[in-house]
């Protein structure tokens, strides 16, 4: 293997620096993520510093006065399927606060994670679209539905990131004020584990 091929496999060359790959993230650098997803500027007040990694910005958001913005960052930063899986794990830790339809959708998403076929994704999406209200699991079902690029006949304009964010934050709100900081810390810790360094 040539040296340049080896460098390309180990990390992305970006000017004078090598940026290590992360299969869970859309990109490693926070500024690149903001450039890719301009709606982040609307959803997060704290702005990235030059050359700041997603993991460092996530840590800053976690310790900010609005740590919920860390949830928003994670929803955008992960690849769509990883974002859905992270939200699934967050919601699964709060099952007692979810509705029967949420439970049904979470079970289906668990199956989709092992068999991410278009058929399974569409089944989840159709159930979420037919739900009478947007509960945490319904938001996650919608996120799952659009995670594969959406459908031509899609009746709503929604990104995976925004639906994941809505689902996780609404789930967090259901846990009550006393447990909020504990649940939020657990969600962000899980995300940081998936982000890595």
Structural description of this entry:
This protein is mainly α and 197 residues long. Helices cover 63% and strands 3% of the residues. It contains eleven helices and two strands; from the N terminus they run αββαααααααααα. The chain has helices spanning 3-10, 30-36, 40-43, 54-62, 68-77, 80-92, 100-114, 118-130, 136-146, 160-174, 177-195, and strands at 12-14, 17-19. The chain has a two-stranded antiparallel sheet with strand order 1-2. It is globular. It starts with a helix and ends with a helix. The model is unreliable at 1-21 (pLDDT under 50).
Shape: globular
Query: Structural class of the secondary elements?
Result: mainly alpha
Biggest sheet details:
2 strands, antiparallel
Tell me the number of helical segments per DSSP (H or I, 4 or more residues long): 11
What is Rg?
17 Å
Strand order of the largest sheet: 1-2
Order of helices and strands: HEEHHHHHHHHHH
First-last Cα distance: 26 Å
Helical proportion, percent range:
55-70%
Note poorly predicted spans. Answer: 1-21
Number of strands: 2
Strand fraction equals under 5%
Mean pLDDT score, rounded?
A: 87
């Amino acid at each position: 293997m040539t040296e340049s091929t080896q460098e390309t496999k180990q990390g992305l060359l970006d000017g004078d620096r090598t940026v290590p790959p992360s299969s869970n993230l859309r990109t490693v650098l926070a500024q690149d993520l903001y450039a890719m997803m301009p709606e982040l500027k609307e959803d997060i007040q704290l702005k990235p510093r030059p050359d700041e990694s997603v993991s460092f910005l996530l840590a800053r958001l976690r310790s900010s006065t609005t740590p919920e913005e860390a949830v928003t960052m994670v929803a955008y930063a992960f690849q769509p399927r990883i974002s859905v899986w992270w939200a699934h794990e967050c919601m699964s830790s709060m099952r007692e606060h979810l509705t029967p339809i949420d439970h049904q959708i979470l079970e289906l998403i668990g199956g989709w994670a092992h068999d991410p076929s278009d058929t399974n994704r569409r089944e989840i999406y159709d159930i979420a679209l037919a739900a009478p209200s947007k509960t945490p699991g319904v938001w996650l079902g919608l996120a799952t539905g659009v995670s594969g690029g959406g459908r031509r006949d899609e009746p709503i304009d929604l990104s995976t990131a925004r639906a994941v964010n809505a689902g996780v934050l609404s789930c967090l709100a259901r846990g009550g004020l006393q447990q909020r900081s504990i649940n939020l810390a657990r969600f962000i810790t899980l995300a940081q584990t998936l982000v890595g360094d």
